Amino acid sequence: MKVLLTGAFGNIGQSTIEALVSQGDEVRCFDLKTKKNLKIFKKLKKKYGEFIEVFWGDITREQDIEKALEGTDIVVHLAFIIPKLSATGLESEKVPEIAYKVNVGGTRNLIKAMEKLKRPEKIIFTSSVHVFGITQHLEPPRKPNEPANPPEHYSRHKLECENMLRNSNLKWSIFRLAASMPINLKIDQTLFEINLQNRMEYVHTKDVGLAIAHGVRSEEIWGKILLIGGGKRCWYTYGEIVEKVLEGIGIGMLPKEAFSKEYFATDWMDTEESQRLLNYQTRTIDDYVKDIQKALGIKLLFIKLFRPTIRYFLLKKSPYYRKRVIPQRVIWWNYWRSLSGKTVR
User: Fold this and answer.
1) What range(s) does the NAD-dependent epimerase/dehydratase domain occupy (predicted)?
2) Which of 88, 107, 253, 290 could bond to 243 as cystine, CB 3.0-4.6 Å?
3) Alpha carbon separation from 202 to 30, 86, 214, 263, 310 (Å, rounded)
4) 327 burial class (0-12, 13-18, 19+ CB within 10 angstroms)?
5) How many distinct structural domains can be found in the chain?
6) Is 39 exposed, middle or buried (0-12, 13-18, 19+ CB in 10 A)?
């Protein structure tokens, strides 16, 4: 089977390529021709050979989409500008008009082209748990048939795309994804923007790729909205996720005062149906931490050596941490005293 994969070189895209190729599918990667994407493609081409090809194009251009669709059997639509950590370098909440053109306009172009060409007729669209809105006051877990209440541009774009697909003549399936952070994680001010008690379901990026790959081969997913998460063993609070990651890379958990009190549009989800149909839940946050450690390699040693300075600069990024900023010389002095087993005052 030949799959057209839009947004192929982002976080989920690369995991999806791996899973599709592993089950013998061919992948046509559709993405913007940037220096970063070109580098990623060359690396993947060397690894997967004839199983992948690239079509450089812009999803906002109908002619690019029509050409990319030729000879494919199914579409997996990932291309989207997201709030943070977007492969495009743009953030949906900072450039909402551009994001709308890419997210909603691009999806509209894709649907139009598919309906015009008649083939392929099947599309898997990745949406997000964000469309449910702020739900911490509700009893978990979230279910597919619950009303949506999108709180920001990104989730409103996702919901509009969902509705376009549901009203189209295509065979569609919508995958609403739980939190799936990239392995090459960048820690910035965003870290501090969520209440530590916020319920959050984690799903490993490779498990998302597996769900999509299995979905491509399934005949039972069409016309369904499926919730894609790690399952009950991946039900955490945001604080638990942050602590596991920061402790795992040697930085250590940061003071709770550094974090926002505001809740975020994530929650635990009912993934029983998606797991039954797609059989994809193989990893937890502990596997994610191991992946980060492997990616960091020798950098872990330097993180441990310079832990006080790293913590100092991370806390400076928090707009909520108002405690007295201790001079670095004092931080280092206390750090080395603690290593020697002496009491720190």
Assistant:
1) 3-172
2) 253
3) 27, 18, 19, 16, 26
4) exposed
5) 1
6) exposed
The pLDDT confidence band at residue 92, using thresholds 50, 70 and 90, is: confident
**CA-to-CA distance for 99 and 80, rounded, in angstroms?**
8
Q: Are 264 and 315 in contact (CB under 8 A)?
A: no
Q: Confirm whether 310 is domain-assigned.
A: no
Query: What is the SS3 assignment for 52?
Result: strand
Look at residue 89 and tell me whether its pLDDT is greater than 80. no
CATH code of residue 126: 3.40.50.720
| 192 to 261, 340, 341: CA distances (angstroms) | 9, 31, 31
Residue with tokens 């597996």: 210
Sign of CA dihedral 37, 43, 48, 50: positive
Residue 172 lies in a domain: yes
Pairing between β-strand 171-177 and β-strand 74-77 as defined by DSSP bridges: unpaired
Digit-coded pLDDT (tens) for 13-32? 999 999 999 999 999 999 99
Cα angle, residue 314 at apex, residues 342 and 289 outer, rounded to 5°: 85
| CB contact at 8 A, 306 and 224 | no
Query: How many Å apart are CA 189 and CA 136, to the nearest integer?
Result: 22
User: What is the identity of the amino acid at 291?
Assistant: D
Which residues span the domain enclosing 24? Answer: 2-185+201-236+266-284
In this structure, is residue 327 part of a structural domain?
A: no
